[in-house]
Each structure stands twice: as structure tokens, then as C-alpha cells.
Amino acid sequence: MPDLSSITTDPLGQKFLEHLRPYPCTIGLDLSSVRDLTSWVMAWSVKDKILVYPFFLLPAEGLIERSKADAVPYDRWLTDGYLKVCEGWTIHGQYVADSIIALSKIFKLTEVGFDPYMARDVVRSMEEGGVNCIEVSQSITSLSAPTKRFEELVLSKKLIHTGHPILRWNLSCATLYCDSNNNQKVVKPDSLKSRKRIDGVIATIMAISRIQKAPAQFRSIYADRGVLRL
User: Fold this and answer.
1) pTM of the prediction?
2) Overall fold of domain 10-216
3) pLDDT band with cut points at 50, 70 and 90 for residue 228
4) Quick one: the chain helix, strand, coil %, rounded to 5?
């Protein structure tokens, strides 16, 4: 079994994750190529709460310039262990697949919900590694219910996390869009020009979507026995 320290260098995150090993979880995966962050977020349903832990990835080349362009300290987040990078100017799909497969060897990962955009090769590699992958449509009608649930969790302080600075930044960048039917979706303001990033929020909502679609998978005897006290 891989050493947990190889997955995250965040000390608080290590303790958080260690407690969650017995619980079934899902992952929401939001891929990118160059400009946006690639993010995958682990999510656990425990009692009336959702617990999440995010991972973020950028290309190594141009990281300092990207920090200046987006006005956030990607370089410091990398040093502190909150951000991962892969060599070159683009995201390596195999790096993403290998990282999630490694997580599946440690945690009770039931499935990965993924945005189909650019995901074919990554999904094939994950499935070859034994990971169950489920496509999550990015339409507003598909994402409305988990988006509303996400908002409820945030407002009621039942979205539990380790204070990850990139996830906090992503949340501060997010804008809620509602259509005429009261369907909701998280978007970036002025998405074509904005320096803001919401990839971690999107990945979290996709993970919540899968928990909503298959709630029975996320029941745990540990929740009933009170092993994890929240």
C-alpha cells in the first residue's frame, strides 16, 4: 500500500485523510490542458455532512508568469504542498490517472465522476487501473441539483475541509447563475477574460452529484457507530 505522505504534504490534510480511510468516497475530476487548473476532489458523505479534500495540478513551465497573471501565489502553494505540477507546458493525462489510481489503493473509492471534455485517454487509463468512471454532464439541468446541495452545505457549514487555500480561492471566484427554470450552475465572471479559477468548485460539485445519484454506495457502518465524530 502506498505511503499516505506521498499523496499529500499538508500535515492537517494527512490527519484528516487518515480518519477517512474506512469511509467510501467518490472523486469529481475537472481536467484542463494549459490555462486552467486541473482538479480532482475526494468527497465523503458522513451523516448530514460532506467532507472534501482537493488536489490541484498545473504545468511546471510558466508557473511564475501564471502566478503574476492570475495574481495568486502558485509558486508558494507549490512549495507548501497545496499544488502539484507536471513537467512541460501542458497537463499530462497519465499523471492524473496514476494519481487517482494511487488514491484508489489507499481509500475506498467507489467511482470517479468526470467531465467528458478531453477525458477519453485519462478515463481509459483509470479504468485499466481498476477505477470505476462515470461521465457527469456539464449541462445546467444536470448540475443544478448538486450545485444547490453544494450551496446548502456551504451556508450551513456542513461542507467540511482542511482550509485548503486553493479551494478557498476557487470558491471566492465562483458566481452562481440561475436560468428561468431556477436551474443553477457555478460559473466564472467574464469567463473568457477572467483571471479567476473555479475548477476545484466544479470538481466538488461533480463529486456531490455522484453521491446524490448513488447514495447507497456511501452508507457506512462507521457513520452509524459514531467512529468519526463530527
Assistant:
1) 0.88
2) Nucleotidyltransferase; domain 5 (3.30.420)
3) low
4) 45, 20, 35
